[in-house]
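Running co-folding for iron/sulfur cluster.
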Amino acid sequence: MTITTAGPDIVDAGVPGPEWAAEVRRLADLRGATLLAHNYQLPAIQDVADHVGDSLALSRIAASAPEDTIVFCGVHFMAETAKILAPEKTVLIPDARAGCSLADSITADELREWKADFPDAVVVSYVNTTAEVKALTDICCTSSNAVEVVESIDPDRTVLFLPDQFLGAHVKRVTGRTNMHIWAGECHVHAGINGDELTAQATAHPDADLFVHPECGCATSALYLAGEGAVPADKVKILSTGGMLDAARTTGAREVLVATEIGMLHQLRRAAPEIDFQPVNAKASCRYMKMITPEALLRSLRDGTDEVHLDRAVADAARASVEAMIAIGTPGGGGE
Ligand code: 13P
Ligand code: SF4
């Protein structure tokens, strides 16, 4: 289906205005589509979407939405997860080149080899993985439920946790599990938020809360600071993007230092305008997330591109691992 739209000048010099938003909504209605946006999307994309949330919350919304078409403003593994959960729906991502350095850090062949070394292990994969990797996984997790997922596994079984080393280290620390092997992958954006920056900011803002995404290279450092008494332990919160929004609504702090991708600040400031949210690293921007431009969203709605297609057998196997996670019950956060 191709739909007639206003010309490209509707996005003036990259800054979309009310005409762009009205055109997006008109085209979404014509296509019978719902628009989902991850918390790291550009503010204009978040504001025009039907739902904004973390990766798990959005996938669940995609599966239960009454619309037949999902336009997923996020990165490719997220749109794939929506397609895995809703195979009968048309899932569009405005730019299929929007990948993820963390998902790229393990291939299906590498996982097959790792599994061969530990044939009795339970494989736990973060949702930031390709559908092929999910298909080789026993149970998926996200940053909002990784601890619960690992705790749900028989303590006598060896766990292979992938691909994020920092999230893995966090889960290992919290669960105290020793029979857990962790893949050495990382997200280039979060690995770049380091302990030195966090220490400097925490020292400069002694009354601020610290919201830290567990993918951060600084997660260990934040806990170290707390352990040393440099930052009161109750000020350090290791949270998924959705968890940060929930915490923003309840914290008594007037200032919060945020250690994650900077797109997150938009939803946090909307959720709690009275709090001063500041990034630990103002340059922590995910170039893949920002490939979903206002122009790309218009093009997607007009031309029905880029559609996500998955091999049936891969999708079925991947669905089992995602549904095993959902059965554990944490809904994800920040979806509205
Ligand atoms: P969430 O699962 O917290 O939404 O994070 C996804 C992600 O890509 C973090 O970099
Ligand atoms: Fe992937 Fe990192 Fe971007 Fe999240 S911030 S989508 S983990 S590259």
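Result summary
The CA atoms of residues 135 and 313 lie 9 Å apart.
Residues 54-55, 128, 142-143, 187, 215, 240-241, 261 surround 1,3-dihydroxyacetonephosphate (ligand 1) (CB under 6 Å).
Job closed.
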